[in-house]
Amino acid sequence: MLGSYYKFQLTSVLSITHRLTGVFLSLIGAPVLLWWLAALSGGPEAYQAMSERLSGPPGIVLAFTGLFSLTFHFFNGIRHLFWDTGRLLGIENAYRSGWLVLAATVISTAILMGVVL
Amino acid sequence: MKDLHHPLARARGLGSAKSGVHHWIAQRVSAGLLLLLLPWLTYALVCTVSGTYAEAVAFVSKPLHAGLLILSLLVLLYHAMLGMQVVIEDYVHHRALEFTLHLLVRGGALLGMALGLVYILKLALGN
Description:
The structure holds two protein chains of two kinds. By secondary structure, chain A is mostly helical. Chain A has one domain (8-116): 3 helical TM bundles of succinate and fumarate reductases, CATH 1.20.1300.10. Helices cover 82% and strands 0% of the residues of chain A. Chain A has helices at 10-41, 44-53, 57-84, 91-116. Chain A is elongated, with a radius of gyration of 18 Å. Chain A starts with 9 loop residues before the first helix and ends with a helix. Chain B has one domain (23-126): 3 helical TM bundles of succinate and fumarate reductases. Chain B has five helices and no strands.
């Protein structure tokens, strides 16, 4: 595997994760939001049917991946906006802000999962 | 270093993408809006999802909430469309496939905006 020949850096891993979470939110997150709105406007039976399909492990996996992607893309997006203004561009700051983004993502995902479950 | 651009190209300011920095600015302005909207949207979704159907409908039906929901959905899909466009430009090198994917992304975003608008308005006006 790549890992035995290539030493991963936090900076490059967070960079591709930003893209992957963005694609995930676009292709899965947004359609699920629309599905939820469709079920809600479709009446109690439609909403009940959606709740049943998302009960148990599939719902938990979707909630976790969705909330992780959302919070990561949100916090790392703030990091990108700082870079766009020319701030935090040094190696040390890129690593420090990277760990900060990861910490904020883990904490907020845990809190939100606690509310959802 | 000598600038190899024609003075006219500089004055037009459109660059090699032929659209100037419009895409770059639009992605960042929509990101800034989402910075304000997403905390509210996430809070709203997390609260309504863990409640009952009646509570969820009551929440979405409030004019302020329906308005914010419409705004969030439009900005979110616009931002997603711009982001997916860049990903396709970067990784898809087959011209016909790239063009088809661009059409699908734009079509999908527009369809999502239209459908979402109908769902939210139905809830806000009908119930």
